Amino acid sequence: MRSDGRRIVLSVLAVIAVAGLSFWAGRGTSERTNADAVSSQQEIQVRSIRGVPDKTEQARKFPQPAADDLNQEIRKTGNQAAGPAAPPALEPLPSSRPPSAPPISPSIEAARAAMGRKAYDKAAEMLRQALAEETDPEKRMVIGLMLYECRVRTQAYEEALTLGRELLTLSPSPEERLTLNRQLAALLHRMGKPDEAETLLSQSMAEEQDSAIRAKYDAQLRSVWRHTPGRTDEVVTNLTARVSANPQDELALRQLGDIYLKSRRDYKAAQPVYEQLAALYPEEQQIQAALVSIYRENHNYDGVRRVYENRLEQTGEGPTLRFQIAQTELQAGRGDEAVAYAEKHLAGEQATLFQLQLLSTVYDKAGRKDAAIATLDTAITRETNAQQQLSMQFQKAEMLIWNKQYVAAETLLRSIIKSAGDDQQTISRAKGEIVRIFEMQGKMSELNL
Questions:
Q1: Count of CB atoms within 10 A of residue 11's CB?
Q2: Which end of the chain is more exposed for a tag (fewer CB within 10 A), N or C?
């Protein structure tokens, strides 16, 4: 069984491997910045039916319906679409010893102290001797990682590479092996050996049984391609040829789709690839979520609607999915169709209070202000839970403010204050909204609370 110390040391290495980007500083910075913007925009598009809202619209506080599994996947995909992280930086381990690490000899403590003084060559000498004398695999791992740090810090990359490969023979777990292989791939790339880095990651991915870890290897592999001039173009050409020869080549389709979506952010090229994947694996939510993100980027709202409708067929009736379809119609500029769809699937005598809230939101976004307020009033009247009723009253106040019905909004908020009793949190919130009303009208001098 592995000691806590070994797991802690390797977990620190994993954090550094993912977070440390100094090796790649200045390379692809604008690409990652643009990716963050794309990811943020996709998140807004999923949540807003007006596309990318301005700051005023973002300030609206309508409670959003709880997302179903597909919508959660869409959000995750939107984040993933920001592109894979660059290969891990060659940042070494911190020199502080984890409190639960295996007991080590005074010489190792002395080496650690030397590392703290940045005397890495001196520390390396002591560590080499300790490593040669130690037989316990766990202690060898801890010592080896310390020596690896010293060699990386002094740019002794060949020795660090040899040592890293030796550490892989100490029966690491899949997660530990992933961390070490990512470090070694970064090391090889820095040494000007991108082909060896690619081979290491490809072989490791092929041998790995865990799909989540394979995905991490795949993301790392795309990063190596992206940071090797011309290599991504070669890979795209090879993968395209494979897909042409075998349209059901899952690995080629996934890698090609990931390159277009996550590395190049070429949504036009990604669309047919993910459509092909969705046809092969219609129940895989990650593919559907990626396809929704792609369709949104391409303003293909009919495609978005098809994905949601397919999801409805697989899962049965779902108010949130119905609401998402209505939102999609609104994004497409088809307000009448959105209202008709929402009235068909979210209205009626059997409609739940949640469905009425969703319907009210659709009315509001479609410009049917009176219908939105009337529907929300119906939900408020039917609600028996005081806290839920209060939440909907604040939602109504927000609607009124957004519609510039300031007098009605203020009246509602003052009635909330009057009914709040000793609930200072509700009183404070309502007063804050009243202040906002007067600020928006430029009448702060007339405010009386």
A1: 14
A2: N
Cα–Cα distance between 99 and 45 in angstroms, integer?
Answer: 46
C-alpha 137/C-alpha 167 separation (Å) is 9
Domain 4-27+86-228 has CATH 1.25.40.10: yes
Distances (CA, A) of 18 to 42, 74, 187, 314: 23, 23, 14, 37
φ/ψ (deg, to 5) at 168 = -65, -15
**CA–CA dist 270, 265 (Å, integer):** 8
What is the residue extent of each domain of the chain?
Answer: 4-27+86-228
* pLDDT tens, position by position, 229-267: 889 999 999 999 999 999 999 989 999 999 999 889 999
Per-residue pLDDT reduced to its tens digit, 47-59: 333 333 343 443 3
Max Cα separation, the chain? 82
Buried b or exposed e, range 387-418, using 16+ CB within 10 angstroms: eeebebbbbbbbbbbbbebbeebbebbeebbe
Structure-token pair, residue 228:
């090797």
Residue pLDDT, tens place only, 150-178: 999 999 999 999 999 998 988 888 888 89
The Cα–Cα gap between 298 and 381 comes to: 42
Q: What is the pTM of this model?
A: 0.65
Residue 106: how many CB atoms within 10 A of its CB? 7
Q: Which residues of 424-445 are buried (b: 16+ CB within 10 A; e: fewer)?
A: eebbebbbebbebbbeeeeeee
Q: Are 55 and 101 in contact (CB under 8 A)?
A: no
Select from 163, 155, 8, 161 the least CA-distant residue to 94.
8
